[in-house]
Specification:
Length: 360
């Protein structure tokens, strides 16, 4: 897959720089820090052809958007990096659409379940997205923009020229100033030059950078790292996995009967577990199920105990939750002090599928 998440790297010395751009593989991109944008033409806005469906709008064409300032937001709904950006994009849409800003979300899937239009519709409704969304399940628009990142923002002026881009989280004030400048250039009147005050909640809250020491970790065979069950993973074959006696920080393991496929691992029996020793305020797990429509109950523990006040929005204080649809689940939100903790999730029915851990 040529696409890449923008993810967190280790080390306090580099953490603030890396988090602002959140790059997974393929090099670093320096974030802009100037307060007065110096914008340059980066080429014409590519075609929006190729969407399998449009949500909240009739199909939009690049030529038909001339005269409008356009913000193109590449997203995929299970991506924690995009989720933390979304409150800002939504605020800009509400604040500037009367002055001529058109926000277009381009939903380009990472995982197969994100290709299902029913899942995209449900996620759009849950996330309160009411601006136009091009459902780019075949990556046609992604390829037209030569994009490689979630999230990625492209800022297009009223003449149809890309004048700025932002890859990854952060630089929100800079991005809003770009929008303001492009609107003024377009002739918009009474543009509010203040900065929107945005505060996300749940999984959309900004990450706690001071305490973030764990990276995005994939469970599927193709991209799995730091897997610590004895004997390693076996591709596409049922196997009884065991957890090691001790896990190092940022190492994880399976326990129980699992099949590890390229993109995810599927539990074959009851009471299968996943363990991860992490250091972060928040822990999320992208999950789905082998039998859609059949909920899978689960329990979450920290250091062998129910999470109590450290539970995430998708579990209660006793650590109880239900896997109902494929998406990102927030399982832990710790209170300070943040220290190394051992996370464990136990599924009480078969069929659970685990895709990736993310932290915040």
């Amino acid at each position: 897959m040529k696409s890449h998440h923008l993810v967190l790297a280790f080390g306090a010395a580099v953490l603030s720089i890396w988090f602002a751009i959140h790059v997974f593989a393929q090099g670093e991109v320096e974030p802009l820090t100037v307060t007065s944008p110096q914008l340059h033409a980066q080429g014409p806005m590519p075609s929006l052809d190729g969407a399998v469906e449009w949500l909240n709008s009739k199909p939009l064409a690049t030529a038909g958007l001339r005269g409008k300032v356009v913000l193109v937001d590449f997203w995929t709904y299970s991506c924690i990096n995009w989720q933390r950006t979304h409150p800002h994009v939504r605020a800009w849409d509400e604040k500037y659409k009367a002055q001529g800003l058109v926000v277009i979300g381009v939903h380009t899937p990472e995982f197969d379940f994100e290709r299902d239009i029913r899942n995209v519709r449900r996620a759009s409704a849950d996330l309160k997205i009411d601006y136009p969304v091009a459902v780019d399940s075949n990556h046609a628009i992604w390829q037209a923009f030569d994009n490689q990142y979630w999230p990625a923002l492209y800022f297009v002026d009223a003449r149809g020229t890309i004048r700025h881009h932002q890859f990854g989280e952060g630089d929100y004030e800079q991005s809003e100033k770009v929008i303001q400048q492009l609107l003024i250039e377009s002739g918009a009147k009474d543009v509010d030059l203040g900065i929107a005050q945005v505060s996300g909640s749940g999984s959309q809250a900004d990450a706690d950078l001071d305490n973030l020491r764990s990276p995005e970790t994939y469970v599927g065979y193709d991209r799995a790292e730091t897997f610590s069950s004895p004997g390693g993973a076996v591709l596409a074959r049922e196997r009884l996995y065991a957890a090691p006696t001790k896990l190092g920080v940022n190492r994880w393991a399976l326990a129980g009967n699992w099949i590890v496929d390229r993109e995810f691992a599927t539990l074959q029996g009851v009471n299968g577990r996943i363990l991860y020793r992490f250091h972060a305020r928040d822990l999320h797990l992208v999950m789905g199920h082998a039998a859609p429509g059949k909920p899978v109950p689960f329990r979450v523990f920290i250091d062998g105990q129910p999470p109590g006040l450290d539970h995430g929005v998708d579990v209660d204080a006793q650590g109880r939750g239900v896997l109902e649809e494929p998406r990102l689940y927030q399982l832990i939100r710790q209170h300070k002090p943040i220290v190394d903790r051992q996370f464990e999730i136990e599924f009480l029915e078969p069929g659970a599928q685990a895709y990736s851990f993310t932290f915040g």
